[in-house]
Amino acid sequence: MLIPFSMKNCFQLLCNLKVPAAGFKNTVKSGLILQSISNDVYHNLAVEDWIHDHMNLEGKPVLFLWRNSPSVVIGRHQNPWQECNLNLMREEGVKLARRRSGGGTVYHDMGNINLTFFTTKKKYDRMENLKLVVRALKAVQPHLDVQATERFDLLLDGQFKISGTASKIGRNAAYHHCTLLCSTDGTFLSSLLKSPYQGIRSNATASTPALVRNLMEKDPTLTCEVVINAVATEYAASHQIDNHIHLINPTDETVFPGINSKARELQTWEWIYGKTPKFSVDTSFTVLHEQSHLEIKVFIDVKNGRIEVCNIEAPDHWLPLEICDQLNSSFIGSKFCPIETTMLTSILHRTYPGDDELHSRWNILCEKIKGIM
Q1: How far apart (Å, rounded) are the C-alpha atoms in residues 77 and 41?
Q2: Which residues pair with 202 in a beta bridge?
Q3: How far apart are CA 208 and CA 161, in angstroms?
Q4: Over 60: is that where the pLDDT of 361 sits?
Q5: Residue predicted with more confidence, 276 or 360
Q6: Which helix (DSSP H) or strand (DSSP E) does residue 44 occupy?
Q7: Strands 173-181 and 112-120: what pairing?
C-alpha cells in the first residue's frame, strides 16, 4: 500500500539528537519502507546521506526505494573519463553523479529500481538483503532463475547481471544499495558506459564489465511497479513491520532539515569531477595540413579535476613553439573540462588579434583537446 507522506502520519520518526526539532519524531517502533516521488538523482542520493547521517537505526531498519531519470552514477573512488562517454552524455542531457559509496559505475533510468537497505553497522548484511530480493522475485515468478553471487551481484539464468551492489559503512550506521534492471534501455546503457577516451592512466577503481539483461525480457509481467511491491512485501514480512510504502518528497526541508544543501553539494563540479583520483592522459591525434596529416602529442596530469601538468607538442611549422608553450601554460590550473578550454581559446584569440590562420589552428587544436575531456 502506498501512503503519501505528511508530517501528521507515522513517518514523523526515527531521529537521534543530531536532528533539529522540525525533523523526524521518534514515534515509529520498528522499521520503515520509503519511496521517493522524485526522479532526480542528486535529490535521491541526498536522501541516502540524510538517513545515514541523522536517523537512529537501532532496531529500526529502513528500505528506501527510488528511481531516476537517465543518469550515470559513478563510485566514490572512480574516474568518470575512464568509466563513461561524457561527450555523449552531454549531447543527450544525461546527468552524471558521484555517490558516497564505493563500487562501479551504473546507468539509471525509469526502468531501473534502486534499493537502499539501511541498518546499524552491526546489522549490516549484504547477502541477506540480496536473498530477500531473490525471495521477492520468486514470489512473483517461482520459476525465475535468479541467484546472488560472491561478488554480491544478482544473476539471471546464471549469466546475466540484473543487479550490482555498493555500500557505505559509517561509525554506527551502514547502507547497502543495489540496482535492479526491469526495463532499462540496454542500448543506451551500453553506449554510455563505454569510455571513448584513450591514453588514460589512473589508479581509480575500475568497473567490471558484465552481460546484462532486463527482468521484463525474461517475463513481461515483471514491471517496476510489480517488483517494487514484491520487494516491499517481502521486506515487511522479513522485518515484521506493516507493509506500507511511505511516499517522500526529498526536497522537503520540513521533513529533512538541511537536505537541499546536501543535494547541492552532490551537483557541484568539485564533488563530481574534483574528487577524481589523480590521473594522466597520454595520447595523440592528427590534423590535416596541406594534404598531409600532422601528429599532435598531448600529455596532461590532472589532480583534483584540474590540470597540473600540460605538454602539447605540435610541429613547429604548424604551430610555433612559442605559441605552443603559451598554450601549455594557460592550461595549468584550469579545470579539465570543455567549457574552460573554450574560454581559454577565446582569451588566446584576443592575445593575437587579426591572425586568422593562427586562430583557425588554435580552434582545431582546442576542439581536439576538448574531445578527450
Answers
A1: 18
A2: 279
A3: 11
A4: yes
A5: 276
A6: helix 41-54
A7: antiparallel
**How far, in whole angstroms, is CA 371 from its chain's centroid?**
22
Cβ within 8 Å of residue 64, ≥6 positions away: 34, 35, 36, 47, 48, 51, 115, 116, 118
Model's pTM, two decimal places? 0.91
Q: Tell me the mean pLDDT in the region 187-214.
A: 96
Of the ranges 53-67, 106-120, 215-229, 280-294, which one carries the lowest mean pLDDT score?
Answer: 280-294
Q: Which of 330, 90, 304, 311 is nearest to 196 (CA)?
A: 90
Residue 120 grid coordinates: 546499524
Q: How far apart are CA 28 and CA 59, in angstroms?
A: 10
Under 8 Å between Cβ of 128 and 134: no
Residues near 123 by beta carbon (within 8 Å), at least 6 away in sequence? 57, 61, 174
- Nearest-CA neighbor of 224 among 175, 269, 182, 286? 182
- What is the rounded average pLDDT for all residues in the chain? 91
- Per-residue pLDDT tens digits for 168-183: 999 999 999 999 999 9
